[in-house]
Design goal:
Blueprint (H helix, E strand, L loop, with lengths): L4 E3 L6 E4 L2 E3 L6 E14 L19 E4 L2 E7 L4 E8 L6 E8 L9 E6 L4 E6 L7 E4 L34 E8 L5 E9 L2 E9 L4 E6 L7 E2 L4 E2 L2 E5 L3 E2 L5 E9 L13 E9 L5 E3 L5 E4 L14 E3 L12 E4 L5 E7 L11 H8 L1 E7 L5 E5 L11 E4 L5 E5 L3 E5 L9 E4 L11 E2 L3 H5 L1 E7 L8 E9 L3
Antiparallel strand pairs: 1-4, 2-3, 4-35, 5-6, 6-7, 7-8, 9-10, 10-11, 12-13, 13-14, 14-15, 16-17, 18-20, 19-20, 20-21, 21-24, 22-23, 25-26, 26-27, 27-28, 29-30, 30-31, 31-32, 33-34, 34-35
């Protein structure tokens, strides 16, 4: 397979009007543009089978805004660093923040967000079921990147609250998202794995407000093996579409291992979906029925009807926090992965079994309102996650572990998945962090990855760029 450029098959022409032929939209393709180095010696340790600098669930560890791309990571000296470059530039300008990674825990990622109302950059760092660290830039830093100095003076002090708003003492999985009006929201989990609740806070350009929790940890779930009365919802993402609808795919993780066939598995089960049309205040299932209110007494619960869009019991090592996106029509898509039943009905070691037999699947809502699932015919060869990207023509790309890229065309109904790039030459450890915003900026698939190393020997951190159909 050619490593630099692989083009998908040409699509059939369509008819725009009687007697008038119109060329079809192009199918998926990737063309390697180049790779830049963020850090030749970034911190390296394997924890929960991942690295702290490239856990794919860290929303906006790499993002594009106003003609510039931003990245954040921890150096070999454990310092938190934020960097930027003009799109297409070969070098990055870095700022070292006054914070050092406190533990060898790959969950303690750096997540970034932009408040468009005042042009600030926000960072949340270093948390796993405990306190967080927060810093924000001066106003206008991202609005005037060519005239505002990119120095440590552009950032305020590191805080352990959101400008005085304390949220929770058990904080994990920060994800920033911008509302259509330009407010900045922060999604996070309060509590711990197997017993936690999802919550939202919001920044209006002046102050942070806690909107409250919107999922419940209570209720009874029963499998063929046993029952559990506590859990947490793991989000595959939380994203606004072009029309302002907020989408969230998820899976549940049960606290009680009795729901599994083997203690070596993982208690994740079922893929669910909810959405909100009022900026995360009210949540509905795919049929449009209200199933929860943020900050209210009625929260989204495992016992609510109509949440599950792809059922799966806890015996197949279903991965949590995979990936999602919405297409140009506002229809939701997700990537999920697990060990299919053809390899057995009971995983006994979720890392080994996912590595040997795990497969990723593309799940999407069709124009008819039904749910379609298609297996991506590329073995994971990893226990790790896959990221989803949709190009301007709604072709779908799955960035698999080790930086491999598979794709499917919209014209096929997203059923013609094929491998376009085999990851050759990257030497990537596992998961990658995708720039979810750059595709719309300049039709470029851009992702951050770290090279394989061993033990705690630092390794190089890079950003790879691939041109998508223009």
């Amino acid at each position: 397979m050619k490593r630099r450029t692989v083009l998908a098959s040409a699509l059939l022409a369509t008819v725009a009007a009687p007697g008038t032929a119109r060329a079809a939209d192009p199918g998926p393709s990737v063309t390697r543009k180049g790779t830049t180095t963020l850090d030749p010696q970034a911190v390296y340790f394997v924890s929960y089978d991942g690295l702290v600098n490239n856990n794919s669930f860290q929303k906006n560890g790499l993002f594009t805004y106003n003609g510039h791309q931003y990245a954040a990571w921890y150096t070999a000296s454990r310092n938190a660093v934020v960097a930027r470059r003009a799109l297409g530039a070969g070098t990055w300008s870095t700022v070292t923040l006054p914070h050092r990674l406190k533990a060898d825990d790959s969950h303690n990622v750096v997540s970034m967000g932009v408040s468009r109302t005042d042009g600030r950059l926000h960072l949340n760092m270093d948390s796993h079921s405990d306190g967080f660290f927060y810093v924000k830039s001066v106003a206008g830093l991202l609005d005037r990147p060519t005239t505002t100095a990119w120095t440590s003076a552009a950032f305020g002090a590191v805080q352990t609250t959101l400008d005085g708003l304390a949220l929770t003492s058990q904080f994990t999985y920060p994800q920033f998202l911008s509302t259509p009006e330009g407010r900045l929201q922060l999604s996070y989990r309060a509590g711990i794995s197997g017993n936690g609740r999802n919550a939202l806070a919001e920044y209006d350009g002046t102050a942070w407000t806690a909107l409250g929790e919107w999922t419940s940890a209570t209720g009874t779930y029963t499998s063929e093996h046993g029952s559990s009365t506590a859990r947490n919802m793991y989000l595959h993402g939380i994203d606004y579409d072009v029309d302002g609808r907020l989408h969230a795919f998820f899976t549940w993780r049960e606290q009680n291992a009795a729901v599994m066939c083997s203690g070596g598995g993982i208690t994740n089960h079922d893929t669910g979906y909810v959405y909100s049309d009022d900026r995360g205040r009210t949540w509905r299932n795919s049929a449009g029925t209200v199933v929860g209110t943020t900050g209210g007494a009625d929260k989204v619960s495992v016992t609510d009807p109509g949440l599950v869009v792809d059922p799966l019991n806890p015996d197949h090592s279903l991965m949590n926090q995979e990936s999602q996106a919405a297409d140009s029509a506002g229809r939701p898509h997700a990537i999920i992965s697990y060990v299919p039943g053809r390899f057995g009905q009971c995983t006994t070691d979720y890392v080994a079994d996912r590595t040997a037999h795990g497969r990723a699947f593309h799940l999407r809502r069709t124009a008819a309102g039904t749910w379609q699932k298609t297996e991506i015919p590329v073995p994971l060869n990893s226990s790790q996650r896959t990221k989803l990207v949709l190009d301007r023509y709604d072709n779908a790309y799955a960035v698999l572990p080790y930086g491999r890229i598979a794709a499917a065309s919209k014209a096929s109904g997203h059923t013609d998945w094929t491998l376009l790039f085999d990851g050759g030459g990257l030497n990537a450890f596992g998961e990658v962090v995708v720039d979810e915003t750059r595709v719309k900026a300049d039709n470029t698939l851009s992702f951050l990855y770290q090279e394989k190393s061993s033990g705690t020997t630092p390794s190089a951190l890079h950003v790879a760029d691939f041109a998508l159909p223009a």
